[in-house]
Amino acid sequence: MSLANELVAEYDSVAHEAQTLTFLARASELQRDAIEKIDQFLPRLAECKRVAVQTSDEPAANTVLWMELALTGVRAELSMWLKLKGEDPEEAWDDLIGAQSRIEGACRVRRQLGQDATRFDNLLHKLLVVERALFPPQMFNSVGGIGRRECSICGGDYSECGHIVGRAYMGEMCHTVLRNLQVHEVSIVDNPANKRCRITHFSDSGMMRNKMTWRLEERCPEPPPGTNAGATLVRMSQDLSGDGTSDPELLTSSTDLT
Ligand SMILES: [Zn+2]
Question: From ligand 1's centre to the CA of 71, what distance in Å?
Answer without folding.
Answer: 26
